[in-house]
Design goal:
186 residues; five-stranded antiparallel beta sheet; 5 strands; 18% strand; elongated
Amino acid sequence: SRYLMPLLDSMKVSQYYVSITGLTLKSNRCLPKFLYHTIPSHRQASVAQGNIFSEVKQVDGVFHTLTVWENKQKMRKYMLSGAHGKAMKVIGKVAKLDGDGTKVLGYESDSIPSWDEALQLWGKDSKLHGKSSKRANTTSSRILASNNRMLLRRLLVQILVPCLALFVLSKMKILGSSALASLKVR
């Protein structure tokens, strides 16, 4: 029993998935658009399958949500669908995405935190929402690839096409070898 209890405790599965978010608006002019998406998103969360607790609160100019779910999969299903899925598509238009802008914290827990606990955890452990370094690297790679394609096109047009034209003309014996020798490549 002395050895079995610690083993059982280590195998214990957390009872809840807690999600704490905080969003700072770009300006007060964004408030109507934010509320247009927030109110339906909150209603959706309240009735979503797997949702146990859902509240919103504004603290020091930051709009917070505290939601508790049966598991992370059910939270993600809600997050990507319906009104909330639509709201996520406009987040960059209404919210700051850098600095202390939009931050999220999700974790497994055996208890539902109070608002004070949630805000303290969010302040300490939250991560910026939005563009990750992986996405930024992917974007940079795409830009680099696009620039390389443009450079290749220029190379083809400015060098290879004239060379190919000269080759074809010489094979068709339109230009003789003395005429080809007199041409200078720029």
